Every structure is written in C-alpha cells, then in structure tokens.
Model the fold of this input.
Amino acid sequence: MLLASAPVQIQLPFGNGDGTKTNPIPVPTQIPITPGRASFTDGFPPLNATPVSSGGIPPFKSDMNGLLFMLSNIDLWTSAGAGFQFNSGFSTAIGGYPKGARVLNAAGNGYWLSLIDNNTNNPDTSGVGWTATWRAVASVYASAQQTLLSGGAKVLWDTVEYDDYGMWDATNKRFKAPWPGKYRLSGSIYLPSAAGQNLATQIMRNAVLYKQYFQAPQVSNVPLSFPFDAIISMGLADSAQVDLVASSSSVLAGQSGSNQVYVFGQFEFLGS
Done:
C-alpha cells in the first residue's frame, strides 16, 4: 500500500442528522421481543427476508441507519487518530484483549501494549501482561545550598524542572512510580568543601537501601561531585530517594544561589 492511497477520512457518522430514525442496534436477539428488528446476534432476522405477503416484515430504516451509524462512528474515531482506554466490560465480552493490542492509558497520554492473549488485566491498576509504549521523565533540583547531617541524610530537591506525569512527590521529597516497571534514577550532588571523612551516595527504594556509590575517605576539604545512576524495578506507587552518607560530620551540598547545575535528580520510566 502507498501513503498516497489513503482513503478519504469520515467526517460524520452515517445518518448523523437522522435523529430519532437512527436506532442503536442491541447485541441480544430481538426475535422474541420485537419482530423484524435487527441485532448483532442475528443481523437482520429471517422475517426481513420473508415476503410481506407471507407475513414478512421489511427491514426498518432506523435499524439500517443505526447499524451504519455505529460502524461509521468507530471509523470516524479511528480516522481522527484516537484510541480506546481499557474497558473491563468489553474485555470480558471478547474474552480478553489479544497479544499485540494497544489501549490508551487512564491519563490519555500514552498506550499500553498487551504481551499476552486473552488479557483481562487492567493495565492502569495491575499492569500484569502489559508493557508501556511511552517514556516519562521528571527532573528536579535544589534551589539553595543545604546542610546534610551526618549519617544518612535525604537530599532535598525543592524545584521541579519538568514532571508531566506526576512522578515527583513534593511533600515527601522523593520520586514515586505511577506505573509498575523499570525506572532510571540519576543525577549528582555537589559538595563545595567536604570535611575529611567517608562519603557515599545511596539510592533508597521504599526507604530501604538499593544501591550505594563511592564510599571513600576524603583527606582534604576540596570540592567534590557525587554522581549516581541506577536502573530500579519498581511496583505501583513505590518510592525512590537519594541520600548522602557522611560518616562523622555534616556537609554542605550545592552552591549559594542557583543550584540547578549542582544538585539535581532525574527519574525516567523505561517501561515494564
């Protein structure tokens, strides 16, 4: 097929101006309910193919318009490039989504891809059997110099650079996982005059140590920059934060004034 061969897109569903003469077609058979009425189970029933002289009933115009309306309305939606979100009732009716199916996420800003056949799991709640097809990144930084106490002290980023998917928890000063999957947490902490002691950065997942970086003795008060970078497997609503470990005395982090380039963190969703 050629791109230039694209058909004309539908601009209105068929029979859009027909008003009450457009009948929504039901799924269950209408044979024992309303003779001659169409359904998705029977299509147009046998009475519509029986001569009127023999007791037949002509097809209803409203059924024909209703059927074409429903079908063309879906064509209109897809012609506009739109998609459908996960629908539990629809999923049950068809026995689950097939492998390779795509459904729009709850926020309407990305798609889930089904990894299995007969998938009835809700990707926005459990994520089982689905993987995300979009990327999401949040970036934060510290706007002022801060003191990190000895022991393990959480780095307190206070300024959001961008966070389109709500991955930064400003109240608790940590990142959170809006979907289950793999995430990358990276960034750097700058210490302008670290006292001689053992120093390290730690990545904490749900307040438990996940990765520790560069615990080494400092022998002079020279500026230091402590980078960190890890791929983390996280469940829905799991949290991730960065701590600086100072073995004996508190340290300053960042420069006076703007710290955007000195103390920053980035959280990236990589998919399921």
